[in-house]
Write a structure and sequence with these properties.
With 464 residues, the chain is of the alpha+beta class. It is 17% helix and 40% strand. The chain has three domains: 108 residues, chitin-binding protein cbp21 (Coagulation Factor XIII, Chain A, domain 1), CATH 2.70.50.50; 90 residues, Sandwich (Immunoglobulin-like), CATH 2.60.40.10; 200 residues, Glucose Permease (Domain IIA).
Length: 464
């Protein structure tokens, strides 16, 4: 017969197994997975900013972290972090590098990372990682080679510049309003170009080339344009009952909320503000892309989309709307309205790719074409279209006809030009001299510097 002591031992063993099984089922104490060290194999550092290391453990949680630093091929290391943690499932550590000794010029280190979790499995799962740490404390060097002499409020300009940095990460142009313009490699490696634009609704403008390297060093160089403010038209428009109960009502019923009945003034505010913003956002989203990998040249014909077209509304016209003497809304008209005859053919004077060809609220049947270098043309209130999205349009082809679609009272074309999502004065792109001085001359002067040759000036008459 089993002794009483032996029975107690067996019961205790069974109870212990039960407890361990319960712990294993309800906790992660027997988790066998290793912690995760989230970091690149090579990290660039300017030696001033801390290095960010992310750690994860989906099981029992992180218990201990040790991070040490050593020179290449040197076993002597300096401990930067050696801490215990309360079973954290996620950790973000900021690792500060020690200041180098006087005149010490070490350009690379090895960062050793050791992480152990709280699992009972194997007395804790361990993850290790070695990271090559490259020290770069030199900021990128920016050199502006050529740019337009001036930029006009509501207008465009160009620039060509170089950036020198072995560890360059990103380059872009940023305005004082934080608008980002993408830049494109120009002619050969290390050189960049861009069209940029000054929003007509902004009174002030400054533009900077910004270059960042992989170590976090940043350089910023202002593009020295002569700034020319421009006074655009301000219009006072009295709303008629016919207008409110016609086009406005139709658009509000088509695009407005279906679960709420709007008053006639709510309908107008919806169309002139809410719907307009939505339509403009769509346009801006389709016109911000610059798909070229490199630009070696750029040629453009004058934009004259409507034969014998007469201007009937101005670009950047600031419109205030009144009813019974009270202001009820306002908006900007960001294009030229051109009219000739009903359903007149709309011509694309330049080849390009159709990026949008569909209904777009107040713009009605709306076409947008891309012509390279971040430049887009826009055609609104069309009746018929003769091309579709993603099609390539050839030079001087008929793409649509004018009409009264969208928020148009009479047959006309709403024509716009955009640079990376910013509406600019179409008149500039209808001016041969402006294009030669602000685009071709800038690109040619830079190309001469880059190639060290006397390249011939681009002849507009030979452009596509």
């Amino acid at each position: 017969m089993m002794s009483r002591t032996r029975k107690i031992i067996i019961k205790l063993a069974i109870f212990l197994v039960f407890i361990l099984a319960l712990l294993g089922a309800t906790t992660n104490v027997f988790d066998a997975s290793k912690p995760e060290i989230i970091a690149e194999n090579i990290i660039y550092s300017n030696s001033k900013d801390p290095i960010l290391i992310d750690l994860k453990d989906k099981g029992s949680g992180i218990k201990n972290v040790k991070i040490s630093l050593k020179q290449d091929n040197n076993n002597t290391s300096t401990t930067l972090i050696d801490d215990k943690f309360d079973n954290k499932n996620e950790l973000s550590l900021q690792v500060n590098l020690p200041k180098p000794a006087y005149k010490e010029k070490i350009k690379s280190y090895i960062l050793d990372i050791y992480v152990k979790d709280s699992s009972w499995w194997n007395f804790g799962n361990v993850a290790k990682k070695q990271i090559k740490l490259i020290i770069d404390d030199m900021s990128p060097k920016i050199n502006i080679l050529s740019n337009s002499y001036q930029i006009e409020q509501g207008g465009a300009a160009s620039v060509v510049f170089s950036v020198d940095d072995a560890n360059l990460d990103e380059v872009f142009i940023q305005t004082n309003k934080d608008k980002i313009f993408k830049v494109t490699p120009f002619v050969k490696q290390g050189f960049y170009t861009s069209l940029i634009a000054w929003d007509a609704k902004e009174e002030e403008f400054r533009a900077f080339v910004v270059a960042k390297d992989k170590a976090g060093n940043v350089s910023k160089e202002r593009i020295k344009y002569y700034l020319l403010n421009r006074k655009y038209r301000v219009s006072k428009i009295n709303l008629s009952d016919r207008f409110l109960d016609g086009k406005i009502k139709d658009l509000a019923e088509l695009y407005g909320p279906k679960d709420k009945e709007l008053t006639r003034f709510e309908q107008f505010k919806f169309v002139n503000e809410t719907l307009r913003i939505s339509n403009e956002d769509l346009i801006h989203n389709f016109t911000t892309n610059v798909p070229e990998d490199i630009i070696e040249d750029f040629k453009i014909n004058l934009f004259l989309p409507l034969k014998n077209g007469k201007k009937v509304a101005d670009f950047a016209d600031h419109r205030y709307y009144y009813y019974d003497g009270k202001e009820v809304s306002q908006s900007y008209h960001m294009g030229l309205d051109l009219a000739s005859i009903a359903r007149a053919p709309i011509i694309s004077n330049n080849s390009g790719k159709v990026v949008f060809a569909d209904e777009n609220g107040i713009y009605g049947l709306n076409l947008i074409l891309y012509h390279g270098f971040g430049l887009y043309s826009l055609y609104g209130h069309c009746t018929d279209k003769y091309t579709e999205k993603d099609e390539e349009v050839s030079l001087n082809s008929t793409i649509a006809t004018t009409g009264v679609s969208g928020l148009a009272l009479g047959d006309h074309l709403h024509f716009g030009v955009l640079v990376q999502g910013v509406e600019v004065r179409p008149e500039q792109w209808q001016d041969r001299r402006w294009i030669e001085n602000n685009i071709y001359k800038v690109l040619n002067d830079a190309k001469k510097t880059i190639l060290g040759t006397n390249n011939e000036t681009i002849d507009l008459s030979k452009s596509r």
